[in-house]
């Protein structure tokens, strides 16, 4: 999937590299370090995004080394929201005793939440062997419940979130 898209009438439209170039948009690495005394953003322990000035000191170095240093506030906000949703889903799994504790052996089913960009719907998906960094559920029903109780309210509360 492309990192570049436009939203027209509420629909996400992927843009080709040629279209992005034609629009005069230059891709910038959001992790690139800023010049001394310039602003950067970091995800705070509260989950919000904080504004910092880079003094090239050990605090700034620590944020940069921990990949918690962004030169783009909107990008930092997306990172913060992704981390928040991940923690909310993980909490749901443990609060509801529906964590996936099955062995990964090409036999057991492992459930996760996916988003279909074609129909704009969330789904409880399953895999036997394809592992990725996600929250895993013990059943399709528990993942569907998390969609209703966590994901849908989260999306309403944070309409700027990009799945």
Describe the protein in words.
The longest helix has 23 residues, at 73-95. The radius of gyration is 19 Å and the shape is globular. It contains four helices and six strands; from the N terminus they run ββαββααββα. The protein is α+β, with helices and mostly antiparallel strands and 163 residues long.
Summarize the structure.
This protein has helices at 17-22, 58-65, 73-95, 140-157; strands spanning 5-8, 11-14, 39-43, 49-53, 110-116, 121-127. By secondary structure, it is of the alpha+beta class.
Kindly estimate the percentage of residues that lie in beta strands according to DSSP: 15-25%
- Work out the radius of gyration: 19 Å
Overall shape: globular
Output the structural class: alpha+beta
List the helices and strands and how they pair.
Layout: E1 5-8, E2 11-14, H1 17-22, E3 39-43, E4 49-53, H2 58-65, H3 73-95, E5 110-116, E6 121-127, H4 140-157
Antiparallel strand pairs: 1-2, 3-4, 5-6
Helix pairs in contact: 3-4
